[in-house]
Design a protein that fits this description.
The chain is of the alpha/beta class and 254 residues long. It has 11 helices and 9 strands. Helix 6 runs parallel beside helix 7 and helix 7 runs parallel beside helix 8. Pfam families: PEP_mutase.
Length: 254
């Protein structure tokens, strides 16, 4: 239960997201008590677009090697890489057999819509029955896709908690009132995505947020550093900001 306990400390759990074994090992060496994976980084490293449901094999392979690390590992499995509930439950059972401590399971779909609520709650319940020891972080994309929708966020957060989710993840949420509303609506840890200049760590801590993920930020910063360093060998300056999520998708051809 060590990973569960990390969500109930005096400060939010800062969860950095790795994309290969080396990045994961470096983050552990730096002292982070747990690490996650970034679906964008995993997909882009394989030459694939993110959020298309096409990186199941790469995700499982990475989880297998990351399980060697001496800290809890949680894996982003997007929407489970399948519309079949049994296949998603089997995937999580396999991850649990490696020793993976947690998963992110999202309700956003490749067509930029949300999975119907009844399907998602049934999926969450099935996964928890299959692998009760795995921390299921139920991600809802109500703030990530289109206009933020607090009412739908609260409806889904409550439903996912009732279905057995161990935590709720709302990427894109940043305002105090919205965050407090989600915290008041459930009795499980709330995870937010770090958005530079918008989700300051100390403010999130004061609000009572339990976990802050870096998402694809570290991967995107690493790419920018690699380009800047290479150009710097000849005295050139990259002259470009850190690539955005959309920039990476375009780079890969997604």
């Amino acid at each position: 239960m060590r990973f569960h306990d990390l969500h109930h400390g005096d400060r939010p759990l800062l969860l950095p997201n790795a994309w290969d074994f080396a990045s994961g090992a470096a983050l552990v060496k730096a002292g982070f008590p747990a690490i996650g994976t970034t679906s964008l980084g995993v997909a882009a490293a394989a030459g694939k677009a993110d959020a298309t449901g096409d990186t199941r094999d790469e995700t499982v392979a990475l989880a297998s090697v990351l399980s060697r690390l001496p800290v809890p590992v949680t894996v982003d499995i997007e929407n489970g890489f399948s519309t079949r509930i049994g296949e998603v439950a089997e995937l999580v059972t396999d991850l649990a057999s490696f020793g993976i401590a947690g998963i992110n399971l999202e309700d956003g779909r490749a067509d930029q819509t949300l999975t119907p609520l009844d399907h998602q709650t049934t999926l969450i319940s099935a996964v928890k029955r299959a692998a009760p020891q795995v921390f299921l972080n139920a991600r809802t994309d109500t703030f990530w896709l289109g206009d933020p929708d607090r009412d739908e966020t609260l409806r889904r957060a409550r439903a996912y908690t009732e279905a057995g989710a161990d935590g709720v993840f709302v990427p894109g949420i940043m305002d105090d009132a919205d965050i407090r509303a989600v915290l008041d609506a459930t009795n499980v840890p709330l995870n937010v995505l770090h958005l530079p200049g918008k989700t300051e760590f100390d403010r999130m801590a004061r609000l009572g947020v339990h976990r802050i993920s870096t998402g694809s930020l570290l991967f995107r910063e690493a790419l920018q550093t690699a380009v800047t360093t290479a150009l710097g060998v000849t005295g050139q300056n990259a002259g470009h900001p850190t690539p955005t999520y959309e920039d990476i998708q375009d780079l890969i051809g997604g």
